[in-house]
Amino acid sequence: MEIQSKFLEAGLLVSLTGVLHEAAATSLQKRLEGVIWYNRHFLLLDFANVTQVTAAGLRLLLPSVQQVQEKNCEFIVINLNEEILALFKKTGFNILVTIKDSLDTANTYIAKKYNNRRK
C-alpha cells in the first residue's frame, strides 16, 4: 500500500493506494501515529485509489480513530467505493468516522463545522 500525506488548510489529508489488509493497516497505523500529533482539527483519509479493504485491515485503523478523537479532532473518510462503504456499514465503522463522498464535500463540511466552532 502506498501512503501519501499533505497538509491542507482544513487539516491533514492522507491518500491511500492499493489494498488495505492487515499488513498494510499496520504500516498505515504507524504512519498515522506520526501525523496525528500535528494537532490538526481534521484528519482526512482518502480511499479514492483503494481497491479492497479487509475487515482485519479496517479493524487495525480503530486505534488511530481513537487517537484522533482523544485529541478532540475529527476523522473523515472520503471517496469510498460501494463495496468498501458496505464494509464500513457492516462493521459499524461508519458510526466511528465521518464519511463524505469527495474532498470537495468534506471541505464544505469542514468549513461549516469550523465556522460553528468559532462562534
TrEMBL record:
CDD domains: STAS_anti-anti-sigma_factors (cd07043). InterPro entries: STAS_dom (IPR002645), STAS_dom_sf (IPR036513). One of its GO terms (molecular function) is anti-sigma factor antagonist activity. Residues 1-110 form the STAS domain. Pfam families: STAS (PF01740). This is STAS domain-containing protein.
